[in-house]
Design goal:
alpha+beta, 6 strands
Length: 152
Protein backbone atom coordinates (compact mmCIF):
# COMPACT_ATOMS: atom_id res chain seq x y z
CA UNK A 1 0.00 0.00 0.00
CA UNK A 2 1.31 3.46 -0.91
CA UNK A 3 2.42 6.00 1.67
CA UNK A 4 0.61 9.33 1.99
CA UNK A 5 2.11 12.04 -0.21
CA UNK A 6 2.72 15.66 0.79
CA UNK A 7 1.62 18.29 -1.74
CA UNK A 8 1.64 22.04 -1.68
CA UNK A 9 -1.84 23.14 -2.76
CA UNK A 10 -1.59 26.89 -2.25
CA UNK A 11 -4.79 28.88 -1.75
CA UNK A 12 -8.32 27.59 -2.17
CA UNK A 13 -11.68 29.30 -2.40
CA UNK A 14 -14.41 26.81 -1.51
CA UNK A 15 -18.03 27.37 -2.55
CA UNK A 16 -20.16 24.83 -0.70
CA UNK A 17 -23.40 23.87 1.01
CA UNK A 18 -23.38 22.70 4.63
CA UNK A 19 -24.45 19.13 5.33
CA UNK A 20 -25.40 17.92 8.82
CA UNK A 21 -23.93 14.44 8.51
CA UNK A 22 -22.66 12.57 5.49
CA UNK A 23 -24.86 13.68 2.57
CA UNK A 24 -27.16 11.02 1.14
CA UNK A 25 -26.04 12.09 -2.34
CA UNK A 26 -22.95 14.33 -2.39
CA UNK A 27 -23.20 14.65 -6.19
CA UNK A 28 -26.73 16.13 -5.90
CA UNK A 29 -25.52 18.65 -3.32
CA UNK A 30 -22.55 19.46 -5.55
CA UNK A 31 -24.92 19.95 -8.50
CA UNK A 32 -26.90 22.49 -6.46
CA UNK A 33 -23.71 24.45 -5.71
CA UNK A 34 -22.67 24.21 -9.37
CA UNK A 35 -26.07 25.63 -10.40
CA UNK A 36 -25.62 28.61 -8.07
CA UNK A 37 -22.13 29.17 -9.49
CA UNK A 38 -23.42 28.91 -13.08
CA UNK A 39 -25.98 31.61 -12.28
CA UNK A 40 -23.03 33.85 -11.36
CA UNK A 41 -21.00 32.91 -14.47
CA UNK A 42 -18.32 31.20 -12.34
CA UNK A 43 -16.69 27.92 -13.27
CA UNK A 44 -15.85 25.38 -10.55
CA UNK A 45 -12.69 23.36 -11.08
CA UNK A 46 -11.28 20.06 -9.91
CA UNK A 47 -13.28 17.32 -8.30
CA UNK A 48 -16.24 17.51 -5.97
CA UNK A 49 -15.02 18.28 -2.44
CA UNK A 50 -16.48 17.09 0.82
CA UNK A 51 -14.84 19.31 3.46
CA UNK A 52 -14.68 18.51 7.17
CA UNK A 53 -13.74 20.88 9.98
CA UNK A 54 -13.09 18.23 12.63
CA UNK A 55 -11.36 14.81 12.70
CA UNK A 56 -13.77 11.93 12.05
CA UNK A 57 -13.54 10.54 15.60
CA UNK A 58 -15.65 7.55 16.53
CA UNK A 59 -19.00 8.94 15.39
CA UNK A 60 -20.67 7.25 12.41
CA UNK A 61 -20.69 9.23 9.12
CA UNK A 62 -24.33 10.21 9.70
CA UNK A 63 -23.12 12.45 12.56
CA UNK A 64 -20.21 14.14 10.74
CA UNK A 65 -20.77 17.75 9.79
CA UNK A 66 -19.33 18.70 6.44
CA UNK A 67 -19.58 21.02 3.48
CA UNK A 68 -20.02 19.83 -0.09
CA UNK A 69 -18.89 21.91 -3.02
CA UNK A 70 -16.22 22.98 -5.44
CA UNK A 71 -13.02 24.96 -5.64
CA UNK A 72 -13.67 28.15 -7.60
CA UNK A 73 -11.76 31.03 -9.11
CA UNK A 74 -13.33 34.44 -8.83
CA UNK A 75 -15.59 35.88 -6.17
CA UNK A 76 -18.89 34.04 -5.80
CA UNK A 77 -21.66 35.69 -3.85
CA UNK A 78 -23.09 33.52 -1.07
CA UNK A 79 -26.56 32.71 -2.27
CA UNK A 80 -29.39 30.42 -1.17
CA UNK A 81 -27.39 28.88 1.67
CA UNK A 82 -24.12 28.60 -0.24
CA UNK A 83 -21.02 29.34 1.83
CA UNK A 84 -17.79 30.81 0.44
CA UNK A 85 -14.58 30.34 2.41
CA UNK A 86 -10.93 31.02 1.66
CA UNK A 87 -8.10 28.78 2.83
CA UNK A 88 -4.53 29.99 2.52
CA UNK A 89 -1.14 28.32 2.16
CA UNK A 90 -2.48 24.77 2.13
CA UNK A 91 -0.14 21.82 2.37
CA UNK A 92 -1.95 18.52 2.17
CA UNK A 93 -0.90 15.00 3.04
CA UNK A 94 -2.97 12.88 0.62
CA UNK A 95 -3.88 9.23 0.25
CA UNK A 96 -6.30 7.43 -2.06
CA UNK A 97 -9.36 6.00 -0.33
CA UNK A 98 -10.70 2.79 -1.83
CA UNK A 99 -13.21 1.57 0.73
CA UNK A 100 -16.70 2.53 1.85
CA UNK A 101 -17.49 5.82 3.58
CA UNK A 102 -17.55 4.15 7.00
CA UNK A 103 -13.81 3.36 6.51
CA UNK A 104 -12.80 7.01 6.02
CA UNK A 105 -11.67 7.29 9.70
CA UNK A 106 -9.10 4.52 9.12
CA UNK A 107 -7.67 6.36 6.10
CA UNK A 108 -7.66 9.62 8.07
CA UNK A 109 -5.85 7.92 11.01
CA UNK A 110 -3.22 6.49 8.65
CA UNK A 111 -2.51 9.94 7.23
CA UNK A 112 -2.53 11.50 10.71
CA UNK A 113 0.05 8.97 11.95
CA UNK A 114 2.24 9.68 8.92
CA UNK A 115 1.96 13.45 9.49
CA UNK A 116 2.90 13.22 13.16
CA UNK A 117 5.80 10.84 12.46
CA UNK A 118 7.15 13.34 9.93
CA UNK A 119 6.99 16.09 12.57
CA UNK A 120 4.28 18.12 10.88
CA UNK A 121 1.28 19.58 12.72
CA UNK A 122 -2.17 18.67 11.38
CA UNK A 123 -4.68 21.45 10.82
CA UNK A 124 -8.20 20.74 12.09
CA UNK A 125 -9.74 20.37 8.63
CA UNK A 126 -9.54 17.64 6.02
CA UNK A 127 -11.29 16.78 2.77
CA UNK A 128 -12.45 13.99 0.53
CA UNK A 129 -12.07 14.76 -3.18
CA UNK A 130 -14.26 12.79 -5.58
CA UNK A 131 -13.11 12.68 -9.22
CA UNK A 132 -13.59 10.67 -12.38
CA UNK A 133 -10.39 9.74 -14.20
CA UNK A 134 -10.74 8.94 -17.91
CA UNK A 135 -9.07 5.68 -18.87
CA UNK A 136 -7.39 5.00 -22.22
CA UNK A 137 -10.52 3.19 -23.44
CA UNK A 138 -12.67 6.25 -22.70
CA UNK A 139 -14.40 4.86 -19.63
CA UNK A 140 -14.43 6.84 -16.37
CA UNK A 141 -12.87 5.43 -13.21
CA UNK A 142 -14.15 7.04 -9.99
CA UNK A 143 -11.40 8.07 -7.57
CA UNK A 144 -11.54 9.26 -3.97
CA UNK A 145 -8.68 10.94 -2.16
CA UNK A 146 -8.45 11.94 1.49
CA UNK A 147 -6.30 14.97 2.32
CA UNK A 148 -5.33 16.10 5.80
CA UNK A 149 -4.04 19.67 5.79
CA UNK A 150 -0.81 20.27 7.68
CA UNK A 151 1.56 22.96 8.91
CA UNK A 152 5.16 22.20 7.98
Amino acid sequence: MADPQLRREGNLRLASMPSPGWPADPWATGALVRELLDDQDLEPHGGLLVWFSMPPGEDPPERWECQVGWAVTGMPHPDAGMLVEDYRQLNACCLAHTGPIRDLPATWRRIDAHVRTAGWRPRPYWRLALRDRRLADGNLLPEAEVALFVER
